[in-house]
Structures are given as C-alpha cells and as structure tokens.
Write a structure and sequence with these properties.
This protein is mostly beta strands. It is 13% helix and 48% strand. The protein is elongated.
C-alpha cells in the first residue's frame, strides 16, 4: 500500500511538471500556406462501373477553386470536371499545415454528376471524401495541387460501386 501511495505521488508530480512545461513553452506550429486560389489541371478516373452500359473510366479537364478561411483551418473547395460530361464536386476541408508552403487536407462533400455519360467521379450524385495536398511555390503566387476523390455509390448501372479519381493542376493565389 505504501508503494502505491508513493507511485501516486510520483505520477502526480510528473503530471504537474508536464503541465507547467506545456504552459510555459512557446507553441511550435507550422504556419498555414495562406491564400485562396483558382486553378486548372486534369482529372484521371481509375474506376469503371458497368462497362457494357458505357460506364468506363474517363479523363477530364479540371477547374479548381479554394477559399481559405484565415482564422480557421477550414477551406471551401470546388472542382469542376469537364469532358464528355461535367461533374461539380464542392467540398469542405480541414487543412493541416506541414510547413509555410504546404497544406495537407481531408474534405467531404458531394459529386454532382447526374448524367448519362460517365465522368471521373461516376455518373450519379454521390457522397465524396477528398484527401489532398496544396504546395505554394516559393516567391510566387502559384500553387501546385493534387487530390484524390473517392465517390461512393457513384454509378447508375452498378449499384454500390465507388469511383476513384486523381486531380492535379496549377493554381493562381488571390
């Protein structure tokens, strides 16, 4: 019992020292890659739905936009995939700065792609998850961006089949 009381005192002392150290030490956080941007690039679909129904993977042009809220680690993003058909993918993302020039993020939203022809994110409106990265080119207003869109239940003629696409491009900060 005496050893248990001594162990509790030691743990309490270590906890107090740890708390004081955390309060007294300046925070060391990476600064976010500031700036909203508009950009262009390409989208590459990796999955297909029912190929006999014409639901094959597609490659499309891409217009991307990001609006960054400077006070919070949150951005609103929209990607427009333009090809034989068009899909619009608005998402809200949680951004994590790795250093002054680089953010990684995870976003959630919808793919608005209710068309007959297939897009890189399918041909049906669906829920999406979007992990990605933004890299600001030093001493410029250019941003290199890349992300993957996972669209769930994304094909009309293939219930339950998800679509996966890769987007990459170059943006201009504003």
């Amino acid at each position: 019992m005496k050893n248990l009381i001594n162990l509790n005192k030691i743990l309490l002392g270590l906890t107090a020292v740890g708390c004081l150290t955390a309060i007294a030490a300046p925070s060391a956080q990476a600064q976010p890659a500031y700036g909203s941007y508009v950009g262009a690039g390409a989208s590459f679909g990796f999955t297909s739905g029912n190929s006999s129904a014409g639901e094959s993977s597609r490659t499309s042009g891409l217009i991307a936009a990001r609006y960054k809220f400077l006070e919070f680690p949150v951005s609103v993003r929209t990607q427009i995939l333009i090809g034989n058909s068009t899909a619009v993918v608005p998402t809200v993302s949680f951004d994590v700065p790795l250093n002054f020039d680089t953010d990684v993020y995870i976003g959630a939203g919808v793919a608005l792609s209710n068309t007959v022809d297939t897009t890189p994110v399918g041909n049906r409106n669906s829920f999406v998850i979007q992990p990605g990265i933004d890299y600001t080119v030093p001493n410029s207003n250019l941003v290199l961006f890349g992300n993957v869109i996972f669209a769930f239940d994304a094909y009309r003629n293939s219930p339950g089949t998800s679509a996966t696409s890769l987007q990459t491009g170059l943006g201009l900060r504003f």
